[in-house]
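Quick one - first record:
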Amino acid sequence: MYTRSRSRWCYGYLQVVAMLKQTLVWGLLLAGLSLWLLPFTHGAGGSVDVYPVDGIINPVVVEYMLESIRQSEEEQATAVVFQLDTPGGLVSSTRLIVKALLNADIPVVVYVSPSGARAASAGTFITMAGHIAAMAPGTNIGAAHPVSGGGEDIEGDMRKKAENDIAAFARSIADKRGRNADWAEAAVRESVSITETQALEQNVIDVVAEDIAALLHQLDGRKVAVAGTEVSLRTEGAVVRYREMTWRQQVLAVLSHPQIALMLISLGSLGLMIELYNPGLIFPGVIGAISLLLAFYSMQMLPINYSGLALIGLSLIMFILETQVPSFGMLTVGGIIAMLLGSLMLIDSPEEFLRIPLTTILVVVGTTSALFIFIIGAATRTLSRQPVTGQEGMIGLRGTVTRRIDPTGPPGTVSLQGSLWIARSDTPIEAGETIRVVAVDGIKLTVAKTTQEV
């Protein structure tokens, strides 16, 4: 009986071991199958990160987009969606962004949205570089003809060279993503621009979607090549995570605006001038130095006309010389004119988004000039004002003789602001008469009758 019970126990134990082995084998098979199917079902049940890109394409946007791709890759998101609305930007920044999109290890969707948005100039290349290119109704893409750093058309051989380079750049992007390379080249050479409907018909984009929800619905099941591997997107029902620029990136983006650059130049110049006229205040000098450094940062991301910048610098020199040279206001007038012309020339671009409005220029130049004139006037009044303290401050004060003043006799005394002073005079002055101080020598005063001209 004992032997039979022990045999049953051993049999049960062997059955449990066999079941565990079978479970382990099936688990390993399922895990392996899941890993094998993962590239083909990318993002099933995952999340989609949406990043807005709005404004000029510059180094700040480059940092923002590259950091966004990196973060989404680390978090194993299903896809990255860049919601794009841009009038254009710097070629160097555009190339860095395109390079990152073409080599991303995660599906990247560039979505020109919302309605009324555009992917002009640099935005054209960025849109075509995405694994998926999409647009919302009422948007447009194109007009990617190259211009110079100052925004004007390039002339001569340099124009042909730049145009060929950018056209080849556009064709290479289109060929890489299997899109209309002929249209991409025409967007560069002929500045053509088309609507979202035309873009879809001409194989410039892949999808036209009303909003993010409609976009993800249409993307579900699409196959894209990511890092050399074909993956199938599973975006239906994915969690949508809206992301924004960090506060640091937002501050730097604001600083890169042309109007902010002009204001920083004006503020920095005023701060330094106030510090020069009033050494030791410290605060205006610190603010001025910081403002100018920020202005230099801003200008390195903008197409600056150095003739305009030189005129602004000349205006500041004229303002400073006004305090040293008796020009009867001509240097101040010249400084105002130079600052106005320099501000108009500072950023010369046919693109509206890079222009500084005339109203902003008038406000900045007018405010700077008014403050400078006020500072110069206050300094002039201070220098010409009669001293009111010390020995110099006593000249011209009136007092009363308390003891007769005789030029040939002992010194007399006078009462002046409640104090008695030893006094002398070139003429006799009787006690009780009113006198005026004409000179101070230590504790002795030289006085004269108030009716006597000195």
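second record:
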Amino acid sequence: MSTVGELLAESPLPRAEARLLLAVVLEVPVETLIARPERAVDDAAAARFATLAARRAQGEPVAYLLGRKEFFGRRFAVSPAVLVPRPETELLVELALERLRTRPQARVLDLGTGSGCLAVTLALECPQAAVVAVDRAADALAVARSNAQRLGARVEFASGDWYAAVGGRFDLIVANPPYVAAADPHLAELRHEPQHALVAGDDGLADLRRIVGGAPAHLTGGGWLAVEHGHDQGASVRELFARAGFTAVETHRDLAGIERVCSATMPAIPV
């Protein structure tokens, strides 16, 4: 039998990560482990901890090991079927909520919803809005539906490829689509996450082209589109918006100062 202190000292992981995983195995708060490093850990629990630590050492995200990730102050269930929600994506929520303050009963579309973190958050923060969330992956939609039900969010889910799954027009459209180029070396670090939710053609813009180009046919007059994009794609995405006839095109930087979201307005009802 080992102690908490011994297991943490022997772990190859950073102390904070190791402590978090051990707390999950023992079903106690992290603070308990900090206060009682002498606490005994039986062999079965130590083996479960070793398994999780080995998976983490191979690069598997902590969120998948825990089965959850915090986003905009709420806990979302995640699995390898969906991307792990990132803090920088909260910028997309904040921008959408600014628009919803003047249009609280808007019809909102979330394209490529994944875990549902965008759609569920917007539905909870602005309960008067009618939120529709789309994804083409059945396993991702299952995760999103589960999150909406558990958190009490009113969201309509649809299965399909971008706009093919929905009808009518929307006041707001948001999307965090795949935007990584197929040959990007950083994909190796993301190998445990669903590649179809990351990679978008040779230049990473394939899905952004479809979303921006297709938006005029699905937005109301004065409707608004916002998309997350890669750190070096700001100029290219602004050009996509301009070509599609949008006005008030803006790029928004995340907390690290990186160009992260592009938004724009459709000035009139498209023909």
